[in-house]
Automatic annotation (TrEMBL):
A single cellular component GO annotation: cytosol
Catalysed reactions listed for this entry: beta-D-fructose 6-phosphate + diphosphate = beta-D-fructose 1,6-bisphosphate + phosphate + H(+)
Cofactor(s) essential for the protein: Mg(2+)
The organism of origin for this protein: Porphyromonas loveana
Residues where diphosphate binds: 78
GO MF terms held by the record: 6-phosphofructokinase activity; ATP binding; diphosphate-fructose-6-phosphate 1-phosphotransferase activity; metal ion binding
Gene3D superfamilies: 3.40.50.450, Phosphofructokinase domain, Phosphofructokinase, domain 3
Lineage summary: Bacteria, Pseudomonadati, Bacteroidota, Bacteroidia, Bacteroidales
One matching Pfam family: PFK
Name of this chain's protein: Pyrophosphate--fructose 6-phosphate 1-phosphotransferase
Superkingdom of this protein's organism: Bacteria
C-alpha cells in the first residue's frame, strides 16, 4: 500500500505494555463469577461456560514452553481504530510462546468463517498494518454467528486448518455471539476455544471489568477536533448555530466525552432525556431558551451536540414508533395503496390520539421518513432520521413563534453536521494503539492457558501504562436477558451513561456556564509524538471515572 510519512513513522512505533505482559506471565484464577442478572436463565443457556473464574496476569518467574497452536481471528461489526494492533499483539504473543504457531484471518467478518474465506497472517502482512486505522487487513462484516449450522460450517474450516482457538474482535452483539459459539463448541467437545475482544467506538461495551472498548478514545478525539474547528469558526463568524450529531445510537458516551473535551453551548444526553421523561418539545424548548439567552447577550451563534440515538430515548417518540411499527406491519398492503401525498393524513387518522398529535407536530420530511423508510422486518429505521436537522428546524419554528409574540428579537441561522464515519477508521491514538496491542497479547495468553468463553481485559486504563492490569473476564458474567425479535435472549448488557457517574456530573455542573460562554476548547488533531500528557492522555471520561472509583 502507498504510505505517507506519518504512516511510515507510525509503523515503527512500539506499543507500551505493563510488566504483566512482558516476558513470563503467571495466570491467576479468582473466584467463580455470576451474570449481572437473570442468573438462573443465563446459567441454563450456558451450562459449560457459566460460572468461570476471573483471570488475572502477573509477572512470572520463568518462561514456559507451549505447543505450537494455529489460531483464527475475525473482525466483526463496524470499524474501530486499533483493530490491527489487536491482531498484531495476538500474533506477537503467539510467536513469543512458540515460533511455530500460525495465525489465520477470516475475511470480511464472520461470513469468512462460514464460507471458508481466509488468509494466513504472516509477519510480512502484520508489519504493514501496525498502528494503522481501519480493518482492511482482513475486512469486517455484520453477519451474526448464532445458528448451529453456521457453527458447524465454521468447524469444518477450523478443523481443516487445525485451528485450536478463534478470537472474535467486536462489540456487545459480536461478543454475545462469541459466547454462544464458545458454549456450542464446548458442548460438543470440539476442542475449539473462543476468546473475545471489546471493540466499539460507541463506548457502550463497558463494565467493572471492561473499563473501555477500544476505538472510543480515538473516535472521540477525532470528533472533538472537528467540533473544536467548528467552534473556532463559530466564534470567528458569529452568525451560525451549529447542530452536530455524533455516533452513539444506544448510548451517549461519545457525545458526553466530546462535550467534556470541547465545552459546547448545549449538549443533549439521551439517557437524561429518558430519565426525565422529556417530550421532543421539551428538548426543543430547552435549546430555544438557550438561543434566546445568548441572543440577549449579543451572541446569535453557538453549538449543539446531539447523540445519534436521541429519538429512541424520548418516551413519547418511542411510543409513537412502536405504534407505527405495529400498524404498518399489520396493514402493509393497504398502506402501499395510499398515494404518497395522502400518507401522512392516512397515518394520522389511524394513530391513537396522543401519538397522532405528536406525529402532526413533526416536520413533514421527518414524518414521511418515519413511515417510508423501514427495514426488512417492517420497523422504522430510526437511525436514518436526521435528528440534527429535525431539532434545528423545530427550534427555528419555535423561535419564529416567539418572535411574533415579542419574546425573541435576534437572528437564528443554522448549519447541521453528522460525524460518524470520520472517526471509525482513523489512525489510532497512542492510547488505542497501546490498549489494543495489550488486548491482543492478553487474548493469546488466555488461549495458551486453555481458556474459552473469555473476553480479554486490560484495567486501570486511566493510570500510567506500567500500572495497567491484564487478564480475562468470562463473557457470561456480563450477560442479562433481553427481548430481541419477540423472544427473551441472553445478551451482553449495553452500558448507558450513568446519571450518578462522574462524567455526567461534570457536564451537569458546567453546562449552565458553557451555555453563555464563548470560551470553547479547541483540542486540535491527535498528537502521536511529544510529551506524554499530550500524546498518551486517556479520555476525560476514564479520568473522571477513576476519581469516582
Amino acid at each position: 500500500m502507498a504510505k505517507s510519512a506519518l504512516h511510515l513513522a507510525r509503523m515503527s512505533y512500539q506499543p507500551k505494555m505493563p510488566a504483566s505482559l512482558r516476558g513470563a506471565v503467571k495466570v491467576v484464577e479468582g473466584a467463580a463469577t455470576e451474570s449481572v442478572s437473570d442468573r438462573e436463565e443465563i446459567a441454563a443457556f450456558f451450562p459449560h461456560t457459566y460460572g468461570l473464574p476471573l483471570v488475572s496476569f502477573l509477572p512470572g518467574s520463568e518462561m514456559k514452553e507451549y505447543p505450537a497452536a494455529n489460531v483464527g481471528v475475525i473482525l466483526s461489526g463496524g470499524q474501530a481504530p486499533g483493530g490491527h494492533n489487536v491482531i498484531a499483539g495476538l500474533f506477537d504473543e503467539m510467536k513469543a510462546l512458540n515460533a511455530e504457531s500460525r495465525l489465520f484471518g477470516f475475511l470480511m467478518g464472520p461470513e469468512g468463517l462460514i464460507e471458508h474465506k481466509y488468509r494466513e497472517l504472516t509477519a510480512e502482512v502484520i508489519d504493514e498494518y501496525r498502528n494503522t486505522g481501519g480493518f482492511d487487513m482482513i475486512g469486517s462484516g455484520r453477519t451474526k454467528l448464532d445458528k448451529p449450522e453456521q457453527f458447524e460450517a465454521g468447524l469444518e474450516i477450523l478443523r481443516e486448518l487445525e485451528i485450536k482457538a478463534l478470537v472474535i474482535i467486536g462489540g456487545d452483539d459480536s461478543n454475545t455471539n462469541a459466547c454462544i459459539l464458545a458454549e456450542y463448541y464446548a458442548s460438543i467437545g470440539a476442542g475449539i476455544q473462543v476468546i473475545g475482544c471489546p471493540k466499539t467506538i460507541d463506548g457502550d461495551l463497558k463494565n467493572a471489568q471492561i473499563e473501555a472498548s477500544f476505538g472510543f478514545d480515538t473516535a472521540a478525539k477525532v470528533y472533538s477536533e472537528l467540533i473544536g474547528n467548528i467552534q473556532r469558526d463559530c466564534n470567528s463568524a458569529r452568525k451560525y448555530w451549529h447542530f452536530i450529531k455524533l455516533m452513539g445510537r444506544s448510548a451517549s458516551h461519545i457525545t458526553l466525552e466530546c462535550a467534556l473535551q470541547t465545552h459546547p453551548n448545549i449538549c443533549i444526553i439521551s439517557e437524561e432525556v429518558e430519565a426525565n421523561n422529556y417530550f421532543l418539545d421539551d428538548v426543543v424548548t430547552y435549546i430555544a431558551e438557550t438561543v434566546v439567552r445568548r441572543s440577549e447577550a449579543g451572541m446569535d451563534f453557538g453549538t449543539v451536540l446531539i447523540p445519534e440515538g436521541l429519538i429512541e430515548f424520548l418516551p413519547a417518540m418511542r411510543r409513537l414508533i412502536k405504534e407505527l411499527n405495529e400498524f404498518l406491519s399489520q396493514n402493509d398492503a393497504e398502506f402501499k395503496l395510499i398515494k404518497r401525498s395522502a400518507q401522512r393524513v392516512y397515518i394520522t387518522n389511524k394513530l391513537s390520539e396522543e401519538n397522532a398529535a405528536l406525529y402532526r407536530s413533526l416536520p413533514a420530511d421527518v414524518a414521511q421518513q418515519l413511515i417510508a423508510d423501514r427495514d426488512p422486518h417492517g420497523n422504522v429505521q430510526v437511525s436514518l432520521i436526521a435528528t440534527e436537522k429535525l431539532l434545528a428546524d423545530m427550534t427555528a419554528q419555535k423561535l419564529a413563534e416567539w418572535t411574533e409574540e415579542g419574546r425573541f428579537h435576534g437572528k437564528f441561522s443554522t448549519l447541521t453536521h453528522f460525524f460518524g464515519y470520520e472517526g471509525r477508521c482513523a489512525m489510532p491514538s497512542n492510547f488505542d494503539a497501546d490498549y489494543c496491542y495489550c488486548l491482543g497479547r492478553a487474548a493469546a495468553i488466555l488461549i495458551a492457558a486453555g481458556k474459552t468463553g473469555y473476553m480479554a481485559s486490560v484495567k486501570n486504563l486511566a493510570d500510567p501504562i506500567s500500572e495497567w492490569a491484564a487478564g480475562g473476564v468470562p463473557m457470561t458474567m456480563m450477560m442479562n436477558m433481553e427481548r430481541r425479535s419477540g423472544k427473551e435472549k441472553p445478551v451482553i448488557r449495553k452500558a448507558l451513561v450513568e446519571m450518578e457517574g462522574e462524567p455526567y456530573r461534570a457536564l451537569r455542573e458546567m453546562r449552565r456556564e458553557w451555555a453563555l460562554s464563548t470560551e470553547y476548547v479547541y483540542p486540535g488533531p491527535i498528537q502521536f509524538f511529544g510529551p506524554e500528557a499530550v500524546s498518551d492522555s486517556p479520555t476525560i471520561t476514564l479520568q473522571l471515572e477513576r476519581t469516582g472509583r
